[in-house]
Fold this sequence. Notes:
Layout: H1 5-15, H2 17-20, E1 30-31, E2 35-40, E3 48-50, E4 56-59, E5 73-76, E6 82-84, E7 98-99, E8 106-107, E9 117-122, E10 128-132, E11 152-157, E12 162-168, E13 180-186, E14 198-203, E15 211-216, E16 222-225, E17 241-242, E18 245-246, E19 248-249, E20 258-259, E21 265-270, E22 276-281, E23 286-291, H3 292-296, H4 302-308, E24 311-315, E25 322-324, E26 330-334, E27 339-344, E28 349-355, E29 362-367, E30 372-377, E31 397-403
Amino acid sequence: MGLSLIQLTTLLTLLSPAISQNLASDPGRSGAALEIVHLYNDLYPQTIAVSATGRKFSNYARSLDPANIAYTVAELVTNTTERAYPSAEINSPPGGAINYTTNPPTGVNYPNYLIGVQSVVIDPADRLWILDTGRAATPEGVNVPSTPGGPKLIGIDLTNDTIFRTILFPPTVAYSDSYLNDIRFDLRPAVTASGRGIAYITDSSQEGRNGIVIVDLGTGESWRHLDNTPEVRAERGFLPFIWGEVVYTLPPPGQIINYAGNFGADGIALSADGETLFWSAVGSRTLYSIPTERLRDRSPTSEILAQASVVSRGQKGISDGLETDSNGLIYAGNFEDNAINVYNPGNGTVQVFARDPTIAWTDSLAVAADGYVYFTENQLWRTAAYYPGTDRRVKPYVLYRAKCPGNGTKVNLQ
């Protein structure tokens, strides 16, 4: 016997109270208003750099997507198009980014070409720096080791788009399985004997040793601190959840499923006064810091002093990139809550800065001179490197911006 419409409605009301009641639910959006700046419809982007005049640049890591062949650095020309930067030629190493004559294959060792760039950053003097890992992935997704000449730091003068500095990392600093991830600059003359400033870099390697790399921009010398200490490593068994999905890695054939949070020290930020360096691993919710003088120290006991100086700043959510504004706020993604958070070193608290359902894997953030924080959303956990092993990314990838609170702007350490 069938039910009448009235009987069916009454039954559904009894079985599903939510139909007849206004229950509390997650609003999904809060905080700062987001503006779409750029839509990436072509290659797969990671970081964003914005100059004082508003020029915008991104990198496209060949280690994260083998299809990033046409270029690994580009300038954003319109809100939907990009072009290879500083030229198509430097983005195209002869024979490709991988040397298949070695066993196993390796990244090519060309110091005058871009192999596999992971980060682009504008320094306080409004110059663009390109951080090249020297690594790229095979079509099967195997990230090949680098060879000397590949891992490097390149400085570009934006007034004429020419290279003014190339710093090669020795194999004692950039190991063959290192992954030089992100970089921040302090150009104050007093911080180095050369008077040309210093840079701090995270090594987020999934295969090798994590740590902090320091570079004297005047002499070109580089060294490491905090090598493989627990604070720069991913936490064992770390398991994130994004958009209601559990995230495991699904590595190349012949390997087994692992925890997804196996990136070590990744996001990096300098305090507004340059005296403290902040970082976090993707495989951790904890923010750490260290006085920068401990990293610049190269005395015989400098590593002992550095390890003794690390401070846990507490949890701030799962993040990739970090950034600082002139008010000292540290911006960090929060993958699991579709949010950008801010950590206030002045009182030790974390607050939600912006929240939106389209926020998930915030790869990088950059505070610009216009008073906005720019950030990329690139769906990294949906690549074929993660369970279930299929590419589930949906183009376009997005570059957003939001106004910094309290008239915050770009930090000017020079």
